[in-house]
Amino acid sequence: MVDNDSLLTTECGRRRMVEVILRITKGTRIEPKPYEQMLLDQFVRGELTVDHVLILLNAVNFR
Question: Organism's domain of life (predicted)?
């Protein structure tokens, strides 16, 4: 059984979650662009939270 809390609280969990998302979106129009990938990398390392990633993405879209 997967502990859903560990998906967000550990680097390993965040990496696993992002890897699944990247596999699902690969080759589609929603595949992350370089800036989005950079944010995902920072999220995996624990430098950004999901909320911070969303704020930064929204800021770029409103320019």
Answer: Bacteria
